[in-house]
Amino acid sequence: MAGFLIKRLLQAIFVVIAITLVVSFAIRLTGDPALMMFQGGGGSMTEEDLARIRAALGTDQPFLVQYWHFLTGMLTLDFGRSFTGGTSVSLLIGDAVPATLLLAFISMLVSIALSIPLGIKAATARGKVADQIIRILSLVGLSFPNFWLATMLVLLFGITLGWLPPSGMSGMASYVMPAVTMGIILTATNVRLVRTAMLETLQSQYIMVARAKGLSESKVLYKHALRNCAIPLITYFGLQFGGLLGGIVVIERVFNWPGLGTLAFDAVASRDYPVLQAVITVLSLMIVGINLLVDIAYGLVDPRIRTE
Amino acid sequence: MTTFKRGLTATFMALALSATAFTAAPAFAAGKMTISTPQDPGSWDPIDTFLVQWSAVATNIFDGLTYRGPDLKIVPGLAESWEELDGGKRLRFHLRQNVKFHDGEPFNAAAVKYTFDRLLGEQGAKGPQRSNYTSIDSVEVIDDNTVDMKLKAPDPVLLTKLAGYGGMIVPPKYIQEKGEDNFNLNPVGTGPFKFVSYQPKVNIKLEANADYWGGAPKLSELEYRFIAEPSTAVAELQAGRVDLVIPPTIPIGMIPVIKGDPKLAVVSVPGPTVDALRFNTRDGITADPKVRKAIIMAVDRDTIVKSILAGEASPIVSFQSALSFGYDPNLKGLPFDPAGAKKLLAEAGVKPGTTLQIDIRGSDATMNEVAQVISSYLSMVGLTATIKPYETNVITNDIIPQGKTGAMFQQKWGGWTFDYDNTAYAMYHSGEKWNPYDKDEKMDKLLESQRPLTDRAQREKILQEVGAYASERALELPLYNSNAIFGISKRVKGFVAAPDNRLKLNEVSVD
């Protein structure tokens, strides 16, 4: 287990360095943050003014020197200061990480809570009306662009009915619409996955044995069948969580959610290098971490993997 | 199994509950107003930023020595009066007495000196605002209520600049004791509202300053929420959770949504922002002034403003708003004349079917449509235009300064000072960052000659000359001056839209 963890940790470090190197380099190719500061109001800036700002931001240094500062800073959890306003990046990240993680987690829960019973129902009612309806709904769900679904929900529940806040993160109620939007989009795929996995498992001989023993149908389905098809499902849900963190940018923007997506969006728009680098680092660490958790979860669900 | 089922039920219950139990109807505390602003400036320190979204909030926290309201007239602020001495090289300010900062420390001559020493010193060097105040040589305390500002050279725009941004007076003791970092996030000023809390990317909350020198504000609380997405901001407005959406948020296409809601209204005023398609005057066919003139004559700008901008803009003939100092109402641009345009093109030897590229900001929905229309106007005189959209910062801070544009490129500009010098110098003076192509000695001399003049009439005359000369040389295809569009709830009373978005809300109340 220790060897496994060390290997994963080294992998994580490599991934973070590779990703941040590419992102930090690419963002510096487009536009000068010092020049941006003078746009509109400050037509009267001189070359000296620009040099002064570049020195204050540290963008006058060669790229590799800037990158080295970023790497060494990261070791002490110091991500530097935002170019817009000079706020400590750690402070911004510290606020954004829980907001994004919580939303992603609740969306996953919504999706799991919907897709498992629906998927099982579709599998057991294979070819019947219930199966057809679930499959059509899933297709519809897959075809929705998520921002469109979000807008429709906001129109209905936020404006017409006035039940839920249209945006922002303020208490339990504000989680409902973003989480349901994400949840529905995820469920559309997950239902099909659960259905397929269940169909395969239900044809196994041990299910026949379980039925022959006279176990109740729910016991057969949930204890024997579901547990046996849990491995591919966990793998998929885990990987999906990683993708979810990427896809959350759009949802965060529509719902004005103060998470990593909003932070990344603003940082790209204003060429805020330190913030962008930090967001990318945190996101890649999270995704590596989730993959690790998925591996550990295998062992918990399936004793055969634990003993190997 | 049962636990699983119970878990499921609980999940559904929780979802259902949260959907019903928190259906709180929008409840406002008495006298609380909520405003949606598209950007979080990240710091509330006056020396850190040029963002108009900073000013939209900070105008309520800080005061300058002078004040400029929605009517754009310079009136006393923290200085009750001032006089010019030494031929405009010294300004003497008589300060308002018995004014206190929100933390209780007194406002006096020492605070004024501290503010400008800080702006022009080491701390100010880290921010962009200093470049606007470099005409100030030093500030001298004459007595507790009198300060002198010694200038390196007369600066005719200084009194305007003292009404905002870097000229806002800050509390010396508070900053020295609590530090600069604290001040960025916990601003203290003398303004009508006191800072309460700031959550980056979420909101900033203010409360009334009952001791405000201009009288206690009518509202008890102000909350600014940072909402970037226009549809989200409008949804919040419709849901009654936001009372005012400030520009630049609402696109022209969304105006009917707001007008269709009986609880809401749209307020729009001409703002400082102007759009033009500038020419590459150095290379290609647009190096020839005849071609540039032909292009200007080929485009019917009045129709564009009426049909695409739904009247929420005014056509311009020079690159400035009608509110700008240096605007000349008598300046006539080139008329819409496709036949004349064709003739000019033929004279210049431009063959029908010649191509040219128009670079625009891809995220500017209005300009995307406008550019399409311009392209079809140009095709009518035999020019084939291709439109190349760029991300805003790429075009403004890379493509234009590096001189890598097509024959025409969009420039959006507008300084809060409403002084044509701010635009004209940056666009036309040779060697300036945003003027990659043009070099013209006459233009340079005109621009330089007006800078030190304190005689307003004389300076205005030269600025008008600059505008006329730019028009004569056809340096750009002037398009329009966009309105600043506000979406507002009808529960708000006494709101006056400020063209520059610097909204002081002490006279505003809510039902």
Approximate shape of chain A: globular
Main β sheet profile of chain A: none
The name of the CATH superfamily of chain A reads: MetI-like
CATH class of chain A: Mainly Alpha
Number of separate structural domains of chain B: 2
- Under CATH at level 1, the class of the largest domain in chain B stands as Alpha Beta
User: Which word captures the global form of chain B?
Assistant: globular
Strand content of chain A: under 5%
What is the CATH topology of the largest domain in chain B?
Answer: Dipeptide-binding Protein, domain 3
Q: Helix count of chain A?
A: 14
Using only C-alpha atoms, the radius of gyration of chain B works out to: 26 Å
Overall structural class of chain B, as computed from helix and strand content, comes to: alpha+beta
Number of helices of chain B: 17
Describe the structure.
- The complex is a heterodimer of chains A (308) and B (511).
- Chain A is mainly alpha-helical.
- Chain A has one domain: MetI-like (MetI-like fold), CATH 1.10.3720.10.
- Helices cover 78% and strands 0% of the residues of chain A.
- The longest helix of chain A is centred in the middle third of the chain and has 36 residues, at 89-124.
- Chain B has 511 residues and is α+β, with helices and mostly antiparallel strands.
- Chain B has two domains: 2-12 and 27-226, D-Maltodextrin-Binding Protein, domain 2, CATH 3.40.190.10; 271-482, Dipeptide-binding Protein, Domain 3 (Dipeptide-binding Protein, domain 3), CATH 3.10.105.
- In chain B, strands 1, 8, 9, 10, 11, 12, 13, 14, 15, 16 and 17 form an eleven-stranded mixed beta sheet that branches. Chain B has a four-stranded antiparallel beta sheet with strand order 4-5-7-6, with helices on one face.
- In chain B, a hairpin with a 3-residue loop joins β8 (193-199) and β9 (203-208).
- The longest helix of chain B has 20 residues, at 2-21.
- Chain B is globular and about 75 Å long.
- At the A-B interface, α2, α3, α5, α7 and α8 of A face α1, α7, α8, α14 and α15 of B.
